[in-house]
Specification:
It contains 15 helices and 17 strands. The chain is of the alpha/beta class and 389 residues long. It has 2 domains: 251 residues, TIM Barrel; 73 residues, Arc Repressor Mutant, subunit A, CATH 1.10.10. The strands form 4 sheets. It has a 9-stranded mixed sheet, with helices on both faces. The chain has a 3-stranded antiparallel sheet with strand order 12-13-14. It has a 3-stranded antiparallel sheet with strand order 15-17-16. It is globular and about 60 Å long. It starts with 12 loop residues before the first strand and ends with a helix.
Length: 389
């Protein structure tokens, strides 16, 4: 398969499919994921996805799908037939690009060779593994159900089954120093095929880790140590041929995640399933959609009215411009200033740009493109706030 279609600013059209069920809830996770101690009626969910796909096709009109992403939750708990039937419904509703990227997230603890072969036969051509750490102590701390050995086995199985592979790691864990992280990251790169997602551990409200952190029972690296770990990450991945193309994502050139580029390039995407979000262009501009978060609530709503949307907001041009800036500056390729100015209805402040350039936080690629520097990426929210104010 070739690399991402088009150049900077060509986002494509994506479909996100949310499978909300997990075998266990990780203590750091604030995603819309749910544990159920009974068998999931997957055929019933497939039929609900079909109905929501048909509804969303009416909203979007004819489009060419460049990526499909099965996220969660734990999509690798889905039966291959479930994945295949959803992909068939998507293909019936929209034209599928011949080089469409079709990604499925998987946890090493739910990986089976037969199931992987089933996903591949269903049309999945990229898998994203939630590895998170390569030592058993930290995997246990993170609440993961797999061991480091099982993770490595899953990586090798994925590499032998799918054309493309990514896996996630979490760093800035309690007590983690730069040298230990560099050793772990070097090992990970040795197993990586073409893409790594490397996230700093964040303490999110509503999670068990948040409660432990508030009570002083969980300490994470302070700002300076976190910055050191981030800088070490960028340097090591760059030397090893997996440079950052986004704040937390690294790839061999041409192996960037097409689906995620749709988000960051501020393209259109349909969100299917419980809690899924979407951005869809129409006669009134661009709409932000959000589905009911509870799996059963979503299911009942789809069966009753044909879709699972809980809310839909038509975004003002100014709100779209803000989102474009926030998403686009995450990318190494930066943003198209002309596109931003068309949405915002004003030109970017030359004084603000000059100030941020002088402080080494942003740089001009040419007169029409702007991007964050490595230093700017570490204070991205502040940079964006300055630019759009």
């Amino acid at each position: 398969m070739s690399g991402p279609p088009g150049g900077p600013g060509e986002p494509g059209f994506g479909i996100y499919v949310h499978w909300p069920f997990c075998a266990a809830k990780c203590p750091y996770c604030d995603f819309n994921s749910h544990v159920r101690h009974h068998a999931i009626d997957q055929p019933r969910f497939v039929e609900a996805f079909r109905r929501e796909i048909a509804f969303m096709r009416q909203r979007t009109g004819a489009r060419r799908v460049t990526s499909v992403f099965f996220g969660g939750g734990t999509p690798s708990l889905m039966l291959p037939d479930t994945v295949e039937n959803i992909l068939m419904a998507i293909g019936d509703a929209w034209e599928m690009d011949e080089n469409a990227e079709i990604t499925l997230e998987a946890n090493p603890s739910s990986v089976e060779a037969d199931r992987f072969r089933g996903y591949r036969a269903a049309g999945v051509n990229r898998v994203s593994l939630g590895v998170q750490a390569l030592n058993d102590r930290d995997l246990k701390f993170l609440g993961r159900l797999h061991t480091a050995g099982e993770a490595l086995t899953a990586i090798e199985l994925a590499r032998s089954t799918f054309p493309r592979l990514s896996f996630d790691l979490i760093y800035a864990r309690p007590g983690q120093g730069v040298e230990a992280w560099e050793q772990e990251l070097t090992e990970a790169i040795g197993h990586a095929a073409d893409h790594l997602s490397l996230y700093q551990l964040t303490i999110e409200p509503g999670t068990p880790f948040f409660n432990l952190h508030q009570s002083g029972k969980l300490t994470v690296p302070d700002g300076d140590r976190a910055a050191d770990l981030y800088e070490a990450t960028q340097a090591l991945t760059g030397r090893q041929g997996l440079p950052a193309y986004e704040v937390s994502n690294h790839a061999m050139p041409g192996s960037e995640s097409r689906h995620n580029l749709t988000y960051w390039r501020y393209g259109d995407y349909v969100g299917l399933g419980a809690g899924a979000h979407g951005r869809i262009s129409g006669d009134r501009g661009k709409a932000a959609t959000a589905n009911h978060r509870g799996p059963e609530d979503w299911l009942n709503h789809v069966e009753t009215v044909g879709h699972g949307m809980e809310s839909e907001e038509w975004l003002t041009a100014g709100a779209q411009a803000d989102e474009l800036m926030l998403m686009g500056l995450r990318l190494r390729e930066g943003i198209d200033l002309g596109r931003w100015e068309d949405l915002a209805g004003r030109t970017i402040s030359t004084d603000k740009v000059t100030f941020l350039v002088s402080h080494g936080l942003i740089e001009r690629l040419d007169k029409d493109r702007l991007r964050c520097t490595a230093s700017g990426m570490m204070v991205l929210d502040a940079v964006v706030a300055d630019l759009v104010a």
